[in-house]
Structure formats: structure tokens, C-alpha cells
């Protein structure tokens, strides 16, 4: 059949080639996948022009996916370094790359990604409009904002963050309810400033039907941006955040009416005890659309370690329903991440996603862990390295402190509980000090 989007195909009970790939990857039946996609609970972001993509599904009953943010800035504009980050991210298992470039030849980099990268590619058109038009913010017209969305769709990006939930009504709610950190979303702050300076409504909200038309034509997934996400613990789950989420829920239904795939972006910074409730609120207000979260970061005091603070929050969020985790690197709040920061961020978020999949009881999720346990039981070090989420780091630690006995490590030596239990259960004598 002819179909405009993956969602339209699913609603007509048609299994696309992309659905077949995802069903096999996820060990889920094609019929179950089609049903979830028709309901909007699963998405397969894949622009028709992104020919190099290896399709992945995001949403209910599927493995938690991870996204890696990167891109040039005024202070760091090397495309070569960003491409090195992309290649490293793909090698380490990232399912999505989000290009947040805010300086230089952004279109060249974006087209390079959609030409050759197998991961889902996401962008934030608001950033690019400022770069592309190269003029004062308040002089950018409504038509120009929309033209950038069209350009990104034509360039082949699979999902776009569109900050359409912060309309005039939400902005008034924000003003009445003072925050400690105000608006910390870059896109949110840009569109808020534009509305304040021009007196006009958010163009992406006012002309949402035009955005949907573009997305439907190219099968671009809408990532409905959380302009009012909390930027510190004190602002978690406040009025502005919830008001915007209500609006995003309304826009979700409008998108689904046009067969446009949707995911919802979420917090942000937030105390651990609020995370589960936020996941439930989102599922209710946004009708089960996949939730895409940045962290959440669960404490504000750890610059240089925010890959850890976000992994803690991400694991809790994914356990309670978040489908897509955006990584956070040790450089968060400090500088543009380098290649090593990207690696540290990816490893942390992969651990969080995997731990959540185990907690959710996804079929096969714990198989990897069981294989590692078998290797540890046998003291099979080479197999342990093969199974490690970061084999090279595991090898480096092992090699940096060689034990006297090859079947132990330098921490326990002859006191190794695994070795001694294996021996005593095999009927051997264990003397420890005499060996």
C-alpha cells in the first residue's frame, strides 16, 4: 500500500520493511508492534530520505533506547571532531544522534549524517534558524521559522525537537510562578525571547498544522520539546512544567490525527522521589506517547560527574516508563564534551537503560548479565572482558595490577571467595595461606 508515515501504515495493518527490522531486533511479533504503533505508543523515526538508517523502535514493550547529543559551537567548530564523536557513539551502541550544532556550516554536517549514519538523526531547527539567517532574533519571521523545519525535513532528519508547548498562555503561567533557574532549555529560551520581543504567538504553536504537513510529507517524528523543563531540583514538577505538558498532550492528539509520529520530551533536573510520578503524569496527559528524558539529573552539586547523576535518574525514569534516554556527559554545565566525555556519557546511560530493561522484565534483558555471572563463576577472565560493557577499560584495570595467581585478582588473591567455593564444592582442600 501507499502510506505517508509509519503510523499510517500501522493503522492500516500494513507491515513496513522498517517494522520487520524492528520486530526482529526487539523479539516482538509484527502484529504486536503494528498495534502499538497504531496507538502511538511506539514510534520508528525514519525519514524517507535517510537511506542509510538501521531502523529502531522507541516506546512501550521495547528496549530502552539512548540518544547522544553533539554538534559544533562558536568555541568548538571542528566537524572532524564531531564526526569522531559520531563514529565513537555508533561503535558503543547509540541508537540516535542529535545534532545540536549552533555554529559554522550546520547544513553540511547535517547532510553528512543523514547520508551515511545508521543511527536515527535528530535536530533542533530553532538553533539552526539563528545560525542560518544570521540576523537579530526578533527579525526572524514566522515564515522563516517554518522554512527551517522544512529544510531539516528535506535534509533527511528522522526526528525534530519543536518547542511548540510554550505558548503565550504557558509563558504567563511561567511569569506568575517564579523559578529559581528560569528557563534552561536553549530552544525554549530563544522562542520565549522571540515572543516577548515581537508580541507574537509561538509560530510553531500557532502554525502547528503547517508543521504537521511537513512532518507527514517526509515521515519526520515530532519530538515535542519541553521548553519549561526544570533546570534545578527546586523547580521540579512546577506549574510551568505541567502546564506545558498539558499543551503537549493536546498537540499529540492533533499530530496523531494526521498520522504523524510523536514523542514527548521531559525533565530535566528533579529529585528522585518525583521521577515515578512524572512518568505517570506524562503517560496520562500525553496518552502513552513515548517519553524522551534528559537524565533526569537527581542532584545539582556534581559538575564533572553529571553522567552519574543523570544515569541514576535515567534508570528510575526508564523503569517507570521512559522509553528514550538522552545521555549526559561529565562535561554537562561546564563545556562542550570531547570524545572521551562522549564515551563516559554513553557508558553511563547504557548502564541505566539496561538496568531499567531488567527491572521492567523485558524478555531476554537479563541474558547478558547471566552470561557474565557464568564467566565469573568459572573465573574466565577473557570471557568476562568479551561481555563487559566497556571491554577495554576492564582489561586495562586487570592489566594494571597483575595478581600472583592468574585465576584471581590483586584484591583478593588466595582469599578469592569464588575460587575457594568452587574448590571446596568439588571436594578439594582449601588452605589459603599455604598455597
From TrEMBL:
| Cited function | Catalyzes the synthesis of the hydroxymethylpyrimidine phosphate (HMP-P) moiety of thiamine from aminoimidazole ribotide (AIR) in a radical S-adenosyl-L-methionine (SAM)-dependent reaction.
Put simply, this protein is called Phosphomethylpyrimidine synthase
Which pathway does the UniProt entry assign to this protein?
Cofactor biosynthesis; thiamine diphosphate biosynthesis
Residues annotated as binding [4Fe-4S] cluster are: 409, 412, 416
Q: Looking at its record, which EC class is this enzyme?
A: lyase
The record's family statement is: Belongs to the ThiC family.
Which branch of life, at top level?
Bacteria
Look up the record and name the cofactor or cofactors this protein needs. Answer: [4Fe-4S] cluster
Spans traversing the lipid bilayer: none
Q: Where does substrate bind?
A: 69, 98, 127, 163, 185-187, 226-229, 265, 292
Q: Which reactions is this enzyme annotated as catalysing?
A: 5-amino-1-(5-phospho-beta-D-ribosyl)imidazole + S-adenosyl-L-methionine = 4-amino-2-methyl-5-(phosphooxymethyl)pyrimidine + CO + 5'-deoxyadenosine + formate + L-methionine + 3 H(+)
Q: Name one GO molecular function term.
A: phosphomethylpyrimidine synthase activity
| Enzyme Commission (EC) number | 4.1.99.17
Listed GO biological process terms: thiamine biosynthetic process; thiamine diphosphate biosynthetic process
Cofactor note as given: Binds 1 [4Fe-4S] cluster per subunit. The cluster is coordinated with 3 cysteines and an exchangeable S-adenosyl-L-methionine.
